[in-house]
Design goal:
elongated, 2 domains, 7 strands, seven-stranded mixed sheet, alpha/beta, single chain
Length: about 240
């Protein structure tokens, strides 16, 4: 494959290139500012694309891996476009020059794939939603098993909050997914702390977190103890 280089302020003729600028495949193309955007390097001499018989190709920027691969496969003639990064001291790939018909066919294939991917994403989202519902139900049942006095609606609310996908909460931890007693108890304890005590108000009042937890610890333990025994505690 031919290679295209970007090089700033490069004249179309009469410029010398070091061997490090040469393409292993022979021909190289360099981009520059000025009238000639891209130049082809042939035997150390830069030429315009038309002179190098590449003028009929169209530029495909980098970024879409599938489109790039399919365009290159479908194009009888192609060239890699690179630009010299002065700060890093190296040439970096910018895209491809490919035949327009090959690019059109590749775009059509990618659009068809995009629709297939969209349908797959919808199916995956529905599958994850079903999995989340089953997990939340299982988490709520485990709460009710460990704390039979916890109202069913409250257990469901705790499970739903703790098991939100991507939340990083205890329900999504490895222990939480395994429905370990420690993880389930931690979720219930956190709910009681925030819902049934003045913990949040203490934090808003500037009380340090550890001090605030110590102040409301008795209330939390009383509520958890009552739920474990199957009873209720009124605030």
């Amino acid at each position: 494959m031919n290679r295209v280089w970007h090089r700033w302020q490069l004249p179309c003729k009469g410029a010398d290139f070091s061997s490090s600028s040469r393409s292993r495949s022979g021909t190289a193309v360099t981009a520059r500012t000025g009238p000639l955007t891209l130049l082809v390097l042939e035997e150390g001499t830069p030429r315009c694309l038309d002179c190098a018989d590449l003028g009929h190709l169209v530029f495909l920027p980098r970024g879409d891996t599938a489109l790039t691969r399919r365009s290159r496969e479908g194009s009888a003639l192609s060239a890699v476009v690179v630009r010299f990064n002065r700060r890093r001291g190296r040439y970096e790939r910018q895209g491809l020059l490919v035949e327009e018909e090959a690019l059109t066919r590749a775009e059509a294939r990618c659009l068809a794939d995009a629709e297939a991917r969209r349908r797959r994403r919808v199916r995956d989202a529905r599958r994850r939603e079903r999995e989340d519902v089953r997990f939340t139900d299982a988490f709520a049942r485990e709460i009710r098993r460990l704390f039979p006095g916890c109202p069913a609606a409250r257990a469901r609310a705790i499970a739903g909050h703790a098991s939100v996908r991507g939340s990083g909460r205890v329900g999504r931890s490895a222990a939480g997914r395994a429905l370990s007693e420690g993880a389930v108890t931690a979720a219930v304890r956190a709910s009681v702390r925030h819902v049934d005590t003045s913990y949040d108000q203490l934090l808003m009042g500037g009380v340090p977190r550890h001090d605030a937890r110590r102040r409301i610890e008795a209330v939390v333990e009383a509520r958890l103890g009552a739920w474990r025994e199957g009873g209720t505690v009124h605030a």
